[in-house]
Design brief:
single chain; F1FO ATP Synthase
Length: 77
């Protein structure tokens, strides 16, 4: 396969999609985790809800990975 500008742009786009989605998920988890720990110190029954709310931002990374994989598969065409 001959490397050209389109191949490089697709690779850069794939890297940016996974990188920015992971960064956004990390920022969201930081804020949600802080609030969850604060809520659990007052009511320990909130552990299950806090755990679920901390996991939700990880879907951002899954979507970023999906977009990245789709972009990489575009290179083969």
């Amino acid at each position: 396969m001959v490397a050209d500008a389109n191949t490089g742009m697709i690779a850069i786009g794939a890297g940016i999609s996974i990188g920015l989605s992971a960064l956004a998920a990390g920022i969201a988890e930081r804020d949600i985790g802080t609030a969850a720990i604060g809520a659990m110190t007052e009511k320990e029954e909130l552990f299950g809800k806090a755990l679920i709310l901390t996991v939700i931002p990880e879907t951002l990374v899954i979507f970023g990975l999906l977009v990245s994989v789709m972009m990489i598969f575009m290179l083969g065409q």
